[in-house]
């Protein structure tokens, strides 16, 4: 085997090792995820005590029926499940976002990082879109889209 192939073999082995390390990285914290999406996406947090929460399932179904509306408004939907949160994320959810530990809550976070809407019941897409479409940043986006 000549040295060129040997080097490529070593490099590809290192590349596979790096890919393995990157995929093993822990998921970003809730705080980091919100920060990373600031000025890029509107984040809709679907907060529930457990993943099988009936209200959470109803909210998901409502949103699933409107994929184009969600995409047009640069929406990122995040399930935030109390029973699956790290201690740090749990603290952030309760202290910073004021989310209750024991009941479903929908939280709309604008591109500027501010909380724009909060509801203890599922939000119909029309109500959600109405809130977003009144925002100055969204109005500017709509003007540019014309």
Molecular structure report:
It contains seven helices and four strands. The protein has a four-stranded mixed β-sheet, with helices on both faces. The relative contact order is 0.15. It has a single domain, classed as Glutaredoxin (3-Layer(aba) Sandwich). The chain is α+β, with helices and mostly antiparallel strands. Strand 3 (105-109) and strand 4 (115-119) form a beta hairpin.
How many distinct folded domains? 1
Distance separating the two termini: 61 Å
- Rg, rounded, reads 20 Å
Count the strands?
A: 4
Query: Mean of residue pLDDT?
Result: 84
How much helix is in the residues?
40-55%
Counted by DSSP, the helix tally is 7
**In sequence order, what are the helices and strands, one letter per element?**
HHEHHEHEEHH
Strand order of the largest sheet: 2-1-3-4
Oligomer: single chain
- What shape does the CA trace take? globular
- CATH-assigned fold name: Glutaredoxin
Give the C-level CATH assignment.
Alpha Beta
> What would you give as the CATH superfamily?
Glutaredoxin
Which structural class do you get from the secondary structure elements?
alpha+beta
Strand residue percentage = 15-25%
Q: Give the uncertain stretches in residue-range form.
A: 1-25
Architecture per CATH nomenclature, i.e. the level-2 architecture: 3-Layer(aba) Sandwich
Largest sheet: 4 strands, mixed
